[in-house]
Design goal:
Elements: H1 2-20, H2 27-66, H3 76-103, H4 118-146, H5 149-165, H6 172-193, H7 198-222
Helix pairs in contact: 1-2, 2-3, 2-5, 3-4, 4-5, 4-6
Keywords: Membrane, Notch signaling pathway, Signal, Transmembrane, Transmembrane helix
Subcellular location: Membrane
Signal peptide: 1-22
């Protein structure tokens, strides 16, 4: 979360300086600088994700040297999941905190002809961002470990695309639907990257069904018979 905050601080400084050095009366230029700031923010986030990966690799080597069996007690996949989840949570907090503050009032959403679905759409977008950062963390760490540059490029490209789709708001159908499609596809990718498979899902479901049938059978045996 700290690494994400530092990336946000640097991106904000770059955007702040570029705005003050430009013509504030030019609306198109200011909109272009906003898009530029969002792109810079995405690139800095991924750069700091890579820096965090390198830091964890150093820490992993240190943990392995002091352990009894010579192996680190924390796996790379666990670190990737925790890293992505922390990126997602802090990103979601910053995405929704101002919206929650505005929701206190005064005023009613949509009273001036705006969309009444602003808050619920923002909630779904925030949820998608949290999930995406978690999935990106798993894929990114695995790609760095296996040195798959094309995977890193796809992660950065999907992050840029997701950030760019938010500029379509308040046309929420054009932004929310593609973002959730990206979230679903990225989630499947992260699932298989982490070692998952459809065979494991079927095994998991079959085990749950067997456990459920055993519980029902045990409960039936425990019911006293009536005369």
């Amino acid at each position: 979360a700290f690494f994400w905050l530092v990336s946000l601080l640097l991106a904000s400084l770059i955007w702040f300086i570029s705005v003050h050095l430009s013509d504030r009366e030019d609306a198109k230029l200011q909109y272009g600088l906003l898009v530029f700031g969002a792109a810079v923010s995405v690139l800095l986030q991924e750069a700091f994700r890579f820096a965090y990966f390198k830091l964890l690799k150093k820490a992993d080597e240190g943990l392995a040297t002091i352990s009894e069996d010579g192996r680190s007690p924390i796996s790379l996949r666990q670190m990737a999941y925790v890293s992505g989840l922390s990126f997602g949570i802090i990103s979601g907090v910053f995405s929704v905190i101002n919206i929650l503050a505005d929701s206190i009032g005064p005023g009613i959403v949509g009273i001036h002809g705006d969309s009444p679905y602003y808050f619920i759409t923002s909630a779904f977008l925030t949820m998608a961002l949290v999930l995406l950062h978690t999935f990106w963390g798993v894929i990114f760490f695995d790609a760095c470990e296996k040195r798959r540059c094309w995977c890193l490029g796809l992660v950065v490209a999907s992050h840029l695309l997701t950030s760019g789709l938010t500029f379509l708001n308040p046309w929420y159908e054009a932004s929310l639907v593609p973002i959730f499609i990206i979230t679903f596809c990225t989630g499947l990718w992260a699932f298989f990257t982490a070692g998952g498979s459809f065979r494991n899902i079927l095994k998991c479901l079959s085990c749950k069904q067997e456990d459920g049938s055993r519980v029902l059978m045990y409960s039936a045996l425990q019911v006293p018979l009536e005369d």
